[in-house]
Specification:
Bound molecules: 6-O-phosphono-beta-D-galactopyranose
Order of helices and strands: EHEHEHHEHHEHEHEEEHHHEEHEHEEEH
Number of strands: 15
Oligomer: single chain
Number of helices: 14
């Protein structure tokens, strides 16, 4: 008998800016992602202030889900998806973020997408903001650094809640909200990069601004959650956090303490606010020691208390080690930092693969909060090869996913209330960190390449048929 619940939400996840394309179609405005060029593991992508004719912007066409959603959702249905996590492009609905009225054509697109999901009995799981803030808000307000964004975000939320209330029940406010704590999060998430042009990794880090921006996002998220609960009591509202398990590299108590501090600030801080409804005690000292002083309005504490989420969701790709010792090897290729774990192997992009870390994380999360949990991103970014037989034999991806699902099953046996699993990039799409197509996660191969060529045709990989069997047996048959 399967250990997963009967109504377990098997599916896959994508983000509008990474797969829709049609970046300026039907009234859509530019988002921050549309101002990012392509890059690679070795050569970082750039944020540019204007669209430069000499550069390539991968989000502009991406894999053209905008025009091919029917074919793609039909393929998801063929795999047996119960849910499909996607995001709404804020700039399709409010092109600059500041209009009084929404863009009807943008709204109609998601009408069609959600209706298509429903046709196949697929439950949409919608991220309201997934790394695609209107670029006009960066220019006018320096993104979430300005409290004014709360109003604009709420207007957007109210519009989409009202419009899709009968189609969408599960909502996540901000993708990977704790990315805002890392320097690169300024481009991906907080949008605090007004006037910046250059490689994404070289944005000047301004912690005061970063935490102020996050505060505004917490308030905006809580207000959206509260509004949804008040007006649409059947909605289920979730947070979305990056969770990368961290281990002390040595048993040196100094390493254990450093690891605990890292864990608190990187993994727990944002969800403590969003799940428990208040800033956790450990932030007080951290803010004092780092010269951070937040501007809060008198009503903010009550808002945070009243806008707590119903379920916890997270992305899980890797774990890291933490040490105070000098000279240890850094783990490469991820935004989280950390040191190499001698017991783990890494992906081609240097992300340390740790399936047991997923079981550990699920236990930590459920033990702390006791609310339903969903893994809404997980997967292996790899260089796939289209073989001579016209197929992609991605046994390495199957191995990765199998090992993680096995550990999810263990976590369920440990008592975790796990309600769903949506592996990342269920169809190949543009990488968020590097802007390349070559880093593929999908069950479905897309003929689109880093030089912009490719006929965009879709091709199920070996993992497609494997995952179909996994879903059909509710996670029992993983062979
Ligand atoms: C998460 C993001 C996604 C996604 C994924 C894989 O951080 O929420 O948008 O892209 O990671 O990362 P990458 O695309 O950099 O391989």
């Amino acid at each position: 008998m399967s250990v997963f619940r009967e109504d377990f939400l098997w599916g896959g996840a994508c983000a509008a800016n990474q797969f829709e394309g049609a970046w300026d179609a039907d009234g859509k405005g530019p988002s921050i992602a549309d101002m990012c060029t392509n890059g690679s593991h070795e050569c970082p992508k750039w944020l540019t202030k204007t669209i430069r004719p000499d550069r390539f912007y991968p989000s502009h066409e991406a894999i053209d889900f905008y025009h091919r959603y029917e074919e793609d959702i039909a393929l998801f249905a063929e795999m047996g998806f119960k849910t499909f996590r996607t995001s709404i492009n804020w700039t399709r609905i409010y092109p600059t973020g500041m209009e009084e009225e929404p863009n009807e054509k943008g709204l109609e697109f998601y009408d069609r997408v959600f209706a298509c999901c429903r046709k196949y009995g697929i439950e949409p799981l919608v991220t309201i903001s997934h790394y695609e803030m209107p670029f006009a808000l960066v220019e006018a307000y320096n993104g979430w650094a300005d409290r004014k964004l709360i109003d604009y975000f709420l207007r957007y939320c109210k519009t989409i809640f009202e419009r899709y209330q009968d189609q969408v029940k599960y909502w996540l406010t901000f993708n990977e909200i704790n990315a805002g704590q890392m320097p690169m999060g300024a481009i991906l998430s907080t949008g605090t990069v007004r006037g910046y042009e250059g490689p994404v990794g070289q944005v000047v880090d301004r912690p005061q601004e970063r935490y102020q921006a996050l505060h505004h996002m917490f308030v905006a998220s809580a207000l959206a959650v509260k509004y949804a609960h008040d007006h649409y009591p059947w909605f289920r509202m979730g947070n979305m956090n990056i969770f990368a398990a961290v281990y002390p590299l040595t048993p040196d108590p100094a390493d254990v303490l450093e690891c605990q501090r890292n864990n608190q600030m990187i993994n727990w801080f944002c969800s403590d606010v969003q799940v428990r409804g208040a800033y956790p005690s450990y932030t007080k000292r951290y803010f004092e020691e780092h010269g951070i002083s937040l501007q809060k309005e008198p009503e903010d504490d009550a808002i945070l208390r009243e806008g707590v989420v119903d379920f916890y969701t997270f992305s899980y790709y890797m774990s890291n080690c933490i040490t105070t010792h000098k000279g240890e090897a850094k783990a490469s290729g991820n935004v989280m930092g950390g040191y190499k774990n001698p017991y783990l192997k890494s992906s081609q992009w240097g992300w340390q693969i740790d399936p047991q870390g997923l079981r550990y994380s699920l236990n930590e999360i459920y033990g702390r909060y006791g609310i339903p949990v969903m893994v809404v991103e997980n997967g292996l970014g790899a260089r796939d090869v289209l073989e001579e037989d016209g197929k992609v034999h991605d046994s390495y991806r199957i191995d990765y996913l199998r090992q993680h699902i096995e550990q999810m099953a263990e976590a369920v046996k440990d008592g975790v209330d796990l309600i769903g699993y949506t592996p990342w990039g269920c169809i190949d799409l543009v990488s968020a960190s590097t802007g390349e197509m070559a880093k593929r996660y999908g069950f479905i191969y897309v003929k689109k390449y880093d030089d912009g060529t490719g006929d965009l045709s879709r091709l199920p990989k070996d993992s497609f048929y494997w995952y179909r069997k996994v879903i059909a047996t509710n996670g029992e048959d993983l062979d």
